[in-house]
Design brief:
CATH architecture of the largest domain: Up-down Bundle
CATH topology of the largest domain: Glutathione S-transferase Yfyf (Class Pi), Chain A, domain 2
Order of helices and strands: EHEEEEHHHHHH
Strand content: 5-15%
GO molecular function: glutathione transferase activity
Structural class: alpha+beta
Helix content: 40-55%
CATH class of the largest domain: Mainly Alpha
Number of domains: 2
Domain GST C-terminal: 87-203
Number of helices: 7
Pfam family, one: GST_C_3
Distance between the termini: 26 Å
Shape: globular
Protein name: Glutathione transferase GstA
Domain GST N-terminal: 1-81
Length: 203
């Protein structure tokens, strides 16, 4: 498999999933602005959407969209440690979390990366993010992870989004459960390995 990624982007979520799963894969760095691979090839030929992540599969096809990719990785790993079994009530809860993180949290951060966004607009989206962070903080009360006591691919995704709070000067101090959760996931060896390989941690 090949994971097409940009350092620190949402593609870090499937990178963490692959690391946790222990599956073999190659990393292919993408310049998102230029839509080019490091060797100069046109990334649009791989993913016409132009976004990361994309996962090149062993049969030559390409899977896109983070929530779909991480579930594929979890199922490919096969032990059930990263996602509950397909068709189980717990799997639908996992999908509920993945969809919430993708459509509410992730999409609320997107505009903040626009260099021309005005302060009023930034404050609007930061207020929206704060409401979502408050909700997730309450859901984590008494739990180590989103699904309870076990790490899943949804946790890797949420961790990446929470890591953007530092870049956007969003203080997590009002959310003690989230603060502890972020530190807990950051300390996982496989998460550290994925971040280090993207140049996000100093050796």
């Amino acid at each position: 498999m090949k994971l097409y990624y940009s350092p620190g982007a949402c593609s870090l979520s499937p990178h963490i999933a692959l690391s946790e799963a222990g599956l073999p894969f190659d990393l292919v760095k993408v310049d998102i602005r230029a839509k080019k691979l490091e060797n100069g090839d046109d990334y649009a030929a791989i993913n016409p959407k132009g976004s990361v992540p994309a996962l090149g599969l062993d049969d030559g096809s390409v899977l896109t969209e983070g929530p779909a990719i991480v579930q594929y990785i979890a199922d490919k790993e096969g032990s059930g440690k990263l996602a509950p079994a397909n068709g189980s009530p717990e799997r639908y809860r996992l999908q509920e979390w993945l969809n919430y993180i993708s459509t509410d949290l992730h999409k609320s951060f997107g505009p903040l990366f626009a260099p021309t966004l005005g302060d009023d607009a930034k404050n609007f989206f930061k207020d929206r993010i704060a409401r979502h962070l408050g909700y997730v903080d309450k859901q984590l009360a008494g739990k180590d992870y989103l699904m309870g006591s076990s790490f899943t691919v949804a946790d890797g995704y949420l961790f990446v989004i929470l890591s953007w709070c530092d870049r956007m000067q969003i203080d997590l101090a009002p959310y003690p459960n989230l603060t502890a959760y972020k530190a807990r996931i950051a300390a996982r060896p496989k998460v550290q390995a994925a971040m280090q390989s993207e140049g996000l941690l100093q050796v």
